[in-house]
Amino acid sequence: MDQLLQSVKIGINEKIYVKDPESSDLGKRIIEQSILMIDAMGFESFTFKKLGAKIGSNESSIYRYFENKHKLLLYLASWYWGWLEYQLVFSTNSIADAQQKLDKAIEIVTKTTVEDSSFSHINEVLLNKIVINEYSKSYLTKEVDTENKEGYFVIYKRLVTRISTMITEVNSDYKYPSSLASTILEGSLHQHFLKGHFSSLTDCHQDDDSTKYFLHLVATTIK
Predict the structure, then answer these.
(1) What is each CA distance from 33 to 20, 42, 124, in whole angstroms?
(2) Domains of the chain (ranges plus CATH)?
(3) Which of 7, 5, 146, 129 is nearest to 76 (CA)?
(4) Is the confidence at residue 1, as pLDDT, over 50?
(5) 110 exposed, middle or buried (CB, 10 Å; 0-12, 13-18, 19+)?
(6) How many angstroms from the chain centroid is the CA of residue 114?
(7) pLDDT at 48 over 70
(8) In terms of C-beta density within 10 A (0-12 exposed, 13-18 middle, 19 or more buried), how is residue 102 classed?
(9) Is residue 21 scored above 90 in pLDDT?
(10) CA distances (Å), 129 to each of 4, 72, 144, 185, in order?
């Protein structure tokens, strides 16, 4: 899978950015350093001015790639969901048994993230932390309906649909496959957040506990 991913380009909605950051070294540095800085200081404290100083470029050069930091967060989240989707597709494509395929998909989207050397300018571990801590800020806005119509969340929605389809393939009589699929994705983020910040509110303390929890939850829900 690693060799396959090396030839993959995560397709992001072109309306999210002004210029594709993957098209230049500066764009890649913007992505690389923004991940490091948002992880270190939080999204609220992060600014393009600080990013420009870090990469040794004018603040105006960053605006040539992204209209604002909200759009940058949308880009980072979209890239993360696209990266997760590729892993899910490659890992489940050859599995014929519906239950095994669903179990593998749950493992992929709930496991603790490890760095992927296929994308040298993106630290997936830190990006995962950003998605856990900051992703809700990308859609808890007054513009969410407009941005949804513009297709800003299409990769995330597509990932939910893939899991929903797998649930239906295991039990076609289950009435809430999309609700359960979105619960797996959002719930996994929440469990990892609780693990890091409110550990007394979760039983998932080890790296694989979230996966075990959601495997159990889904198995008992759709049986």
Answers:
(1) 16, 13, 13
(2) 2-222 (1.10.357.10)
(3) 129
(4) no
(5) buried
(6) 13
(7) yes
(8) buried
(9) yes
(10) 25, 16, 22, 14
